[in-house]
Design a protein that fits this description.
single chain, alpha/beta
Length: 253
């Protein structure tokens, strides 16, 4: 297999996953190891976001989805949640112009209704600014849960039946998929989790059906260009069978 460190332009499309998702875990623990507040870890984590976005774009990844704030994260201490909201606002204000300059399309997935009107407006403005960009698609999952995504898709599909746009017999995996948050993007190829835990924490449950998983002990603030390239290289060494036998895959059957 081709090492990601030695990729050529001719084989990059075969070697690199089209869609990568990341559970960015470990900001708080990183800060505690430094003897600093958890907030410091979250701020440091923004630098890793920049590095991973830059590397993904350079290596030809088509879509990058980052788990920023789960629907369960509201249960964290109120002060930490407040800081996270302020940091989200800050990043939207400072980073979106850079994304736009680099032809990156930005979107937020999740139930945005719980966010303040001010934050919702910032999100909408950022999405509208980059809506016509045709490079990397950067999706940030905020107040997102995989179960919510599936339930919301089912709700929208049910409404189509009520409105007589489709019949019950037309409900299948494809029509449900069309109502999920990331519909229209490439299938999820690789899901990375930093921080040492071996679970996906209600993230992209529908989309992860045939994704490859990559778990690392590195805490998110330490996960920059080289660790990300290492994850891409690991993906490049996997045999993806999608229900077939290894022999069928080798024979392209």
């Amino acid at each position: 297999m081709t090492s990601v460190n030695n990729l050529k332009d001719d084989d990059i499309n075969q070697a690199v996953p089209a869609h990568v998702a990341v559970i960015m875990d470990g900001n708080g623990r990183w800060a505690q190891k430094q003897g600093k507040s958890r907030v410091t870890g979250h701020k440091k984590g923004v630098e890793s976001v920049r590095a991973v976005v830059k590397t993904a774009r350079e290596y030809g990844v088509k879509a990058l989805t980052l788990f920023a704030f789960s629907s369960e994260n509201w249960n964290r201490p109120e002060t930490e949640v407040s800081v996270l909201m302020d940091l989200f606002m800050y990043v939207l204000t400072r980073e979106v112009k850079r994304l736009h300059k680099n032809n990156i399309k930005f979107q937020v997935i999740g139930d945005l209704s719980r966010f303040s009107e001010k934050l919702q407006k910032k999100i909408n403005d950022a999405q509208m600014l980059t809506i016509n960009n045709d490079g990397l698609v950067l999706s940030v999952a905020a107040n997102y849960g995989g179960r919510w995504d599936i339930a919301n898709a089912a709700k929208r599909l049910t409404q189509d039946v009520v409105d007589e746009k489709i019949t019950i017999n037309e409900i299948n995996e494809n029509t449900l998929n069309e109502k999920t948050s990331l519909f229209g993007l490439p299938e999820l190829d690789l899901l990375i989790r930093t921080g040492g835990d071996f679970r996906i924490s209600n993230f992209l449950l529908w989309q992860s059906a045939y994704a490859e998983f990559y778990f690392t002990d590195e805490l998110w603030p330490d996960f920059n260009e080289q660790p990300f390239i290492k994850a891409l290289s690991s993906f490049n060494q996997r045999e993806r069978r999608f229900g077939k036998t290894g022999e069928q895959v080798k024979n392209n059957n």
